């Protein structure tokens, strides 16, 4: 990755995006030293123009941005970092500097939470208890939820229909985790279909 730090007096703009939901979280600036520190430590560090020094996001609040992916634009003078925020990002208390948490992309956040509960063996979690019961029970649960969704689709209670659809999606995410697949894998299959 060759970034052109010479265009704007040694600073380049950095867009931070939630790697799970794709929501834009904030904009900051990096000099070469901040970029190298970010790459090395896996936590976003900016060059603060107001403090005139390196500033690791979260150094005071504890709300860090854990780096998942770094890319640069076609002109090599803007950085895009996909990161996982450990808490709210904006100094105002909002989730993002551009507003509150959006619902688009939430399934990726839910997928990550399901994965954490399973990977960390959360004993008090319904998700983990279902996972422990094995693939047959998880598959059966998906089937049950699918049937319940079909039944509600034939009725006129929109609230029940939406709840059953949510239950089905939730259980599909558990089954995907158990089978070693992700939502992104399924999106890839759908994207490659010509319909």
Automatic annotation (TrEMBL):
Pathway involvement of the protein, from the record: Amino-acid biosynthesis; L-histidine biosynthesis; L-histidine from 5-phospho-alpha-D-ribose 1-diphosphate: step 2/9; Amino-acid biosynthesis; L-histidine biosynthesis; L-histidine from 5-phospho-alpha-D-ribose 1-diphosphate: step 3/9
Q: Name one Pfam family in it.
A: PRA-CH
Which EC number applies? 3.5.4.19, 3.6.1.31
Which subcellular locations apply to this protein?
Answer: Cytoplasm
Designated name of the protein: Histidine biosynthesis bifunctional protein HisIE
* Gene, per the UniProt record: hisI
The cross-references to InterPro entries, in alphabetical order and at most eight, read: His_synth_HisIE, HisE, PRib-ATP_PPHydrolase-like, PRib_AMP_CycHydrolase_dom, PRib_AMP_CycHydrolase_sf
Give the record's keywords alphabetically: Amino-acid biosynthesis, ATP-binding, Cytoplasm, Histidine biosynthesis, Hydrolase, Multifunctional enzyme, Nucleotide-binding
Every copy of the Phosphoribosyl-AMP cyclohydrolase domain together lies at 26-98
Lineage, top-rank taxon, reads Bacteria
List the HAMAP family hit by this protein, alphabetically: HisE (MF_01020), HisIE (MF_01019)
Catalysed reaction per UniProt? 1-(5-phospho-beta-D-ribosyl)-5'-AMP + H2O = 1-(5-phospho-beta-D-ribosyl)-5-[(5-phospho-beta-D-ribosylamino)methylideneamino]imidazole-4-carboxamide; 1-(5-phospho-beta-D-ribosyl)-ATP + H2O = 1-(5-phospho-beta-D-ribosyl)-5'-AMP + diphosphate + H(+)
Please give the NCBIfam families that the UniProt record associates with this protein.
histidine_hisI, PRK00051.1, PRK02759.1
A GO CC annotation given for this chain: cytoplasm
Instruction: Return one Gene Ontology term, BP aspect.
Output: L-histidine biosynthetic process
Task: Give the start-end ranges of region Phosphoribosyl-ATP pyrophosphohydrolase.
Answer: 107-195
**Residue ranges of the region described as Phosphoribosyl-AMP cyclohydrolase:** 1-106
Describe the family membership recorded for this protein in Swiss-Prot or TrEMBL: In the C-terminal section; belongs to the PRA-PH family. In the N-terminal section; belongs to the PRA-CH family.
Question: Can you name one GO molecular function term for this protein?
Answer: phosphoribosyl-ATP diphosphatase activity
């Amino acid at each position: 990755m060759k970034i052109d730090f010479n265009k704007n007096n040694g600073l380049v703009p950095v867009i931070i995006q939630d790697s799970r939901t794709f929501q834009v979280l904030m904009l900051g600036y990096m000099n070469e030293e901040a970029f190298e520190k970010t790459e090395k430590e896996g936590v976003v560090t900016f060059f603060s123009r107001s403090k005139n020094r390196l500033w690791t996001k979260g150094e005071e609040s504890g709300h860090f941005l854990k780096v998942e992916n770094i890319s640069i634009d076609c002109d090599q003078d803007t950085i895009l970092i996909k990161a996982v925020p450990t808490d709210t990002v904006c100094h105002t208390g909002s989730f993002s500097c551009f507003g509150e948490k959006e619902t688009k992309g939430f399934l990726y956040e839910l997928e990550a939470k399901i994965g954490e509960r399973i990977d960390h063996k959360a004993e008090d979690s319904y998700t983990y208890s279902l996972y422990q019961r094995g693939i047959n029970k998880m598959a059966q649960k998906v089937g049950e939820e699918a049937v319940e969704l079909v039944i509600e689709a034939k009725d006129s209670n929109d609230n029940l229909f939406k709840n059953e659809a949510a239950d089905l999606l939730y259980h599909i995410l558990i089954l995907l985790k158990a089978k070693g697949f992700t939502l992104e894998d399924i999106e890839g299959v759908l994207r490659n279909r010509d319909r």
